[in-house]
Structure formats: structure tokens, C-alpha cells
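Deliverable D2.4 — example input (C-alpha cells):
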């Protein structure tokens, strides 16, 4: 028995949670089950909550920066868990990882330049690229029906033909759940080095890696890789702190770092707010035990969801995730046109997932399901999907 009770139902509708109130704001049914946006319906660790409380009790909330203890907590986490040695001066903070991705696009490319992504992939990448008048170039992942891999020939071809300046790597990959191997990362990194491509490595999901897989920070592979990398990390997914808006960005190369800092400065990027900084430090210092428990629970949810669909609705194939708590479901076996799978989920099953097509054209007919909720909720969603599909 663990210390935490992740089966406990907590009503988030009164806290303006995006996941649970967006449906109401959009005129959708209140009995919709929401398993879309990537946060979990679980409280964070006791230590995080306690430290926020202590800081709150102080009562004075003036302008605040970080301490050496904050920097050390984060560096120790990455060194202890991923054998990645970093320096405090490499680190900067932003109010989110997408913010940092946008800042990198602005710092290292000009209007009209090409930025590479590997679709299907986390959709705000393309929004940030196109929102800043750059061009999205896609290196679609290869899919053999159960696992995704990198098309290296296409990767290099696109870089050369489109004069790509920046590559946004999603590692581990959302939504397909791949944890890139050291070999795969090395091949991608060597191609980027050869063609002077800077790499934004979004490693926000690095702490959710399942048995038999190992997360390798891209910048940890070699000094050469580190010299072209902007590594984006955050406690937001790991410790369920997304509403506290705190991300830690690492850049070892002084010139690249300065360019990035210049953009942050031009944008008047603020330090994250006091409670974000407090929670971040506490989480990396003391949250390890909570993380292991929550991972155990999530792993069970993945196993039970997979078993459920295999037994009850094999037309939905769960792509086995190597990392992340987001399940990529191949729903093309459900007897509705692939473009209408999301409509089926919303209107027939009354389950709100992420429509696979938002991650790129390769995602049509797929759905992304966030299993970071009490099993009873995930199970009810699975049952609704199965019953509605059988009724078609
Ligand atoms: C790959 C990836 N990057 C970034 C984010 C969000 O980052 P933030 O909320 O810090 O901007 C998410 C959230 O789902 C994500 O999956």
C-alpha cells in the first residue's frame, strides 16, 4: 500500500480547471468525461503542498528570484536520474515550455525560415512556428502499425532541401509515446551538427518512462550535441504543477544562450511566480517518492486500459507507450470515417479526448487519451467508448 490514494475522486470543476470546465464553457454536455489536456487529476506530493503553505504563511509576496538551493535541486535531479551534469549558469526560467520554444524560434530563425518537427507531434509546436511567420517542415514518423520510428533519410533530405535552421525534438514523444534511444538521438544529432541545425529538445515528459526504456537527455550525449541544444524541462508534468507556470531551460553554449536571453529580455519574460518557484524546488528536492507512487498507478492504468480494449473493443488499438501518460489510440477500426472519430467520441461516447488530427495529418483516425485520472474515471470512459462503438 502506498502513502497516496490516487483512486480518490477530487472535484476540479470549482477550480477553473481547463480540463474540466472547458466543456461547459463550450456548451458541451456537463457529463462529458474529460481525458484530454495533459495534467493529472491527482494532488501533488505532500512536501510540495506543505512548502507552498509555509511560503503562503509568510505573507509577503514581493518580487522574487531563485536561490542557489533552487538551482542545485534541479541540477541534482537531472544528474541523479539521467547522469546529466549541468552548470547553474546554463539555466534560465520561463513561464512554460511552449514559451521557451517560441523564444527559441524567435532567437534562431528569421521570418520565412524553416523549422522541422516530427509529426504527429504536440500541436503547439506548429502554432508557435506559424504564429511567428516561420515555415513548418514535417519529417513524418514511420508507423508499422504498432510502433513509430524516425525516417532518417527524409529527416536529412528535409533539412537540406528546406534549409532548416531549427529542429524541435519531442523527447519523449507526445503523442506517440516513443522514448528515443541513444542511437536514434545520436543519428538525429549528427545530422543536425553536419547541417548547422540548432536543436530545441523538449524533454518535459522525461520522468514518465516505462520499464525497459531509458530517457537520454539529448545534450548529455556529447559536448558537441550540448553546444547546439536548448533543453526544455519543467516540473509541471512530473509533479502535476502545470498551473504554477515554471520551466527550466538549459543552454550550455554561451553564444546561443545569450541570443536566447536577449529574446527573453525583449519580451520582458518574468521570473515564474513565487509559488511556482517554491513548488519546483520542493518537488525536485523531496518529490521522488510521490513520483514513484504515481508512476506505479499510471502504469496500472495503462495496463488496464490496454486489456480493456483488447477484450472489449479490439477495433481500438492502444499503441504501447514507452513513456508519457498519454495513450495514442488507433481508432481507425471503429466503423465511422476516420475524420469523424473525434465527433463519435464527443457526441456518441461523451468522452473528450484529443483529436489525433490536431497533431498533424498523420493523426487522422487516432485519439490521444490522458490516463492521469482515477481508474474509475478512465474505466468509465473506456466503457462508454466500447458501448457506443458496439451500438453503431
Ligand atoms: C511535449 C510538450 N511540451 C510542452 C507542453 C506544455 O508545456 P507548458 O505548459 O510548460 O508550456 C506539453 C504539455 O502537454 C507537452 O506535452
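Example output (designed residues):
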Amino acid at each position: 500500500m502506498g502513502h497516496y490514494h490516487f483512486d480518490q475522486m477530487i472535484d476540479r470543476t470549482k477550480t477553473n480547471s481547463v480540463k474540466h470546465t472547458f466543456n461547459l464553457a463550450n456548451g458541451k454536455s456537463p457529463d462529458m468525461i474529460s481525458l484530454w489536456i495533459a495534467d493529472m487529476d491527482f494532488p501533488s506530493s505532500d512536501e510540495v503542498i506543505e512548502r507552498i503553505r509555509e511560503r503562503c504563511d509568510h505573507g509577503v509576496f514581493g518580487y522574487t528570484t531563485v536561490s542557489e538551493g533552487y538551482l542545485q535541486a534541479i541540477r541534482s535531479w537531472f544528474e541523479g536520474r539521467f547522469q546529466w551534469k549541468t552548470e547553474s549558469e546554463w539555466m534560465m526560467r520561463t513561464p512554460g515550455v511552449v514559451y521557451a520554444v517560441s523564444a527559441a524560434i524567435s532567437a534562431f530563425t528569421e521570418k520565412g525560415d524553416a523549422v522541422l518537427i516530427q509529426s504527429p507531434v504536440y500541436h503547439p509546436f506548429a502554432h508557435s512556428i506559424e504564429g511567428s511567420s516561420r515555415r513548418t517542415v514535417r519529417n513524418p514518423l514511420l508507423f508499422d502499425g504498432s510502433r513509430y520510428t524516425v525516417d532518417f533519410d527524409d529527416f536529412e533530405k528535409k533539412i537540406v532541401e528546406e534549409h532548416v535552421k531549427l529542429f524541435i525534438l519531442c523527447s519523449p514523444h507526445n503523442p506517440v509515446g516513443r522514448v528515443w534511444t541513444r542511437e536514434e538521438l545520436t543519428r538525429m544529432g549528427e545530422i543536425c551538427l553536419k547541417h548547422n541545425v540548432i536543436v530545441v529538445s523538449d524533454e518535459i515528459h522525461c520522468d514518465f518512462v516505462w520499464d525497459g526504456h531509458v530517457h537520454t537527455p539529448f545534450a548529455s550525449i556529447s559536448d558537441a550535441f550540448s553546444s547546439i541544444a536548448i533543453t526544455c524541462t519543467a516540473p509541471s508534468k512530473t509533479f502535476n504543477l502545470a498551473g504554477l507556470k515554471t520551466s527550466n531551460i538549459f543552454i550550455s553554449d554561451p553564444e546561443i544562450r545569450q541570443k536566447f536571453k536577449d529574446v527573453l529580455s525583449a519580451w520582458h519574460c518574468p521570473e515564474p511566480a513565487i509559488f511556482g518557484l517554491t513548488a519546483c524546488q520542493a518537488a525536485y528536492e523531496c518529490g521522488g517518492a510521490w513520483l514513484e507512487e504515481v508512476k506505479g498507478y499510471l502504469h496500472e492504468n495503462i495496463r488496464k486500459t490496454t486489456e480493456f480494449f483488447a477484450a472489449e473493443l479490439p477495433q481500438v488499438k492502444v499503441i504501447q507507450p514507452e513513456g508519457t501518460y498519454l495513450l495514442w489510440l488507433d481508432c481507425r477500426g471503429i466503423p465511422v470515417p476516420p475524420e469523424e472519430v473525434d465527433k463519435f467520441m464527443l457526441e456518441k461516447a461523451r468522452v473528450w479526448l484529443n483529436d489525433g488530427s490536431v497533431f498533424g495529418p498523420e493523426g487522422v483516425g487516432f485519439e490521444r487519451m490522458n490516463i492521469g485520472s482515477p481508474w474509475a474515471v478512465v474505466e468509465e470512459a473506456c466503457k462508454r467508448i466500447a458501448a457506443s462503438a458496439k451500438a453503431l
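DSSP finds 14 helices and 15 strands in the chain.
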